[in-house]
Design a protein that fits this description.
heterodimer, A: alpha+beta, Uridine Diphospho-n-acetylenolpyruvylglucosamine Reductase, domain 2, Uridine Diphospho-n-acetylenolpyruvylglucosamine Reductase, domain 3, Alpha-Beta Plaits, 5 domains, 7-stranded antiparallel β-sheet, 5-stranded antiparallel β-sheet, 16 helices, globular, B: alpha/beta, Fumarate Reductase Iron-sulfur Protein, Chain B, domain 2, Rossmann fold, 23 helices
Chain lengths: 465, 443
Amino acid sequence: MVPATLAKSLVEICGRDGVILDEDRLLVYESDALTAYRHRPGAVVLPRSTEQVQGAVRAVAEHGLPIVPRGAGTGLSGGAVALDGAVVIGTARMNRILDIDAPNRRAVLQPGVINAELSAAARVHGLYYAPDPSSQTTCTIGGNVAENSGGPHCLKYGVTSRYVTGLAVVLADGSVVRLGGQGREAAGYDLVGLFVGSEGCFGIATEIEVGLLPVPEGVRTLLGIFDRIDDAGQAVSDIVSAGLLPAALEIIDGPTIRAVEDSVFAAGYPTDAEAALVIEFDGLKAGLDEDVERAAVLCERAGAREVRSARDEEERIALWKGRKKAFGAMGRIAPDLLVQDATVPRTTLPAILRGISEIGERYDLVVANVFHAGDGNLHPNILFDRRDEHELERVERASKEIMQLCVDSGGTITGEHGVGLDKKHHMELIYGPDELAAMWGVRRAFDPGGVMNPGKVLPEGAGGD
Amino acid sequence: MPVSTAVHSLAGAVRKQEQGLLNCVHCGFCLPACPTYRRLGDEADSPRGRLYLMQAVVEGRLDPGAEAFQTHIGRCLGCRACEPVCPSGVEYGHLLELARQVGGDARRPPIPARALLRVFGTAWMARPAMFAGRVLRATGLPALLTRILAGRRPPKGARLAVAMLAASAPPPPLPGRAEARPETVTQRRLEDKPTVGVLDGCVQAGLFSRVNQATVRVLRANGYRVVSVPNQGCCGALHAHGGDLDAARSLARRNLEAFEAAGVDIVALNASGCGATMAEYGSLLADDEEMAPRARALASRVRDISQLLAERGPIPGGSVPLKVTYDAPCHLLHAQGVADPPARVLDSIPGLDVVPLPGAAECCGGAGIYGLTNPRLGGWIGSDKVRAVLGTGAAALVTGNPGCMMQIGAGLALTGAGIPVLHLVELLDESYRRGGLYGKAGR
């Protein structure tokens, strides 16, 4: 519940239908896609313009309340959860593509545009937007900027930060700054680079300029079926070591295969397999066949029992749907899941996968793995039922151990989902007080009053407040 | 908070579906599929948000009489576009019906909505009401009023009702004519000759009897043996969608007995809203020990007319030189998963030029009695559909459900564009008539 004076000014700024104050209606904004954390916001505002965002930020800041930006609420680190009665500023209504400048391969859009819809709109010009998070049919570009999102094809093409070239940002004091723009390298400091991945702590991007790529001339997709997940991990390592550069290298493990095959997105993965490896090559048609052939041979050598090639576009799309909808399909195994996100050196994959499976067994938990193997970006999904308190505790301990395992092998605590609320306390696993103090310094430069998304990313008291 | 029996049955359904609602992992993949979320941008108006509210009621955190529950559950179109995109397979439509029942128990729905459902579900009231509608339609007054009222504002209230009635009238003659020397296409003879009973429906029988007649003719032309099914009635779809599950069940029982008595192999539907409901009679009557197995057996025989025709070919008729576009009824595409058969039927009609309709998979805003319960939003969604249809340059719109025909028809009529809405079988029937399949006398 926010003070009446604040409620009144928010309604004046965003209109009656742009402000949600009713406690019951606020329930649905309790969590993002990581439901382990639930906090009801004090209010939700749904602005339509930069000016409305500006007005709302000023009004909330004047009342000394925190602000949490929210896109489609599909984040997996609790980043959009409103702690301490924070006011949520949702970007769902700011969903217009403002310009597609095809000759310069550039688009300018509002933050609420859905990732896949940008690519669909660009496609008529023979262009697309490369970063493709698995939730791309629903997640927004604003959220992608906040999380510096990746996706299967980021193995070859790189993550969001590589594509964002300009931003209009509403800062915590309600001022608007324009960073970068027109595709130029910024003179002076690269503030766009700093802002991308700031998880809502530096401000709210209300206009985003991104670079687009030409749609590749050819695409070939392979599916390797393995009886042992270690072998699949080995194949990934071998393919990259051989100097091949696939657009994507994704592993889907046995439990995940079975959940997906049971869903409407069944991709035709054999349900008795322990790993499916999706390999995709794209680019100029010349040379694609040789790459595909070499990758197939490497899979067989690593112990694949079968390697298939998608016969047509339909089969290719089905293969990908199975991968991209895997997270949602976990609901078929257990009511709740904690999806982890860690990155490890590729060569350590087989050992880490064994380690994760051993941790799962020790805590009596089902851990399903579906991940961007080419990047060494793991996504162990720990399945549980939050109504069982003891189980929840085991989940937290197992999760922490998995994280420690990844860090010990030279990895880091996130690949693409961000730190948010969930991994704030894992930050100390990889950073010392000096690094954390430096981060606090940058954060304060953007938001001296601590208004924007407080309680996320950086642990308190670690070189900070 | 008073815990009603309806809350118990919602809770029961939740458990029965192996934690039904809890299947929802909150991934949010349903958001862009939802027409209300796309327009309103409020997560409480998304499938995920509505499931969250249902779950809050089950957990006792939310009173089903609360404004939030009433508003957002009430605002759902029930189009079920969220089901095919749900990786966890949440049976949203089923849970929505139970949630509507819970909401209706906590707070009585408005009188006009209740009265309308009562009329549809009660034969002695439905017949005179439909008769009055036909008489009014025959006076030409609704068509005239529609022309006068045509304007740019989204249709709602009385304007919509009048225009919907006008839109249910038979379409004007289509271009082209019967072939001078019809090909010697004969009606198909099948060895197995399955026996088909057609659901006449309430609105369909009352205002679209021509579609029912066309259905029988095209089925016979394709080799099906069509038998009459006495004592059948309204399928209960509108009641179930509105949360009046008791009324829906008693209507289902009546139809179950009627179709069993007629001894049909197949139940054919030309109204996809009714088709989706009859195909789910098994779960509707799941708690009725005696009826449940019979309901499941009957439900497994339910087929949309487009499926029956596509399965057999269908045989070609005469040319209909017309540019058309097709809008997929939600309860055919999303609820029954019937995607290709209507297109295959259209492709079989010589001379027809079928152009794609952008957003064909999205609800038209008709959604049963949505125009009555949510006039503003229904009008908004309807206008978007009308704009998309006009944008294709088609001379007629084809679809497969009376609610959609009237909703889109009313919207098109109010633009004054003169684009008729046809049922798929009406078009095929015209093609058969022109091709001489029904003999020289035509119909």
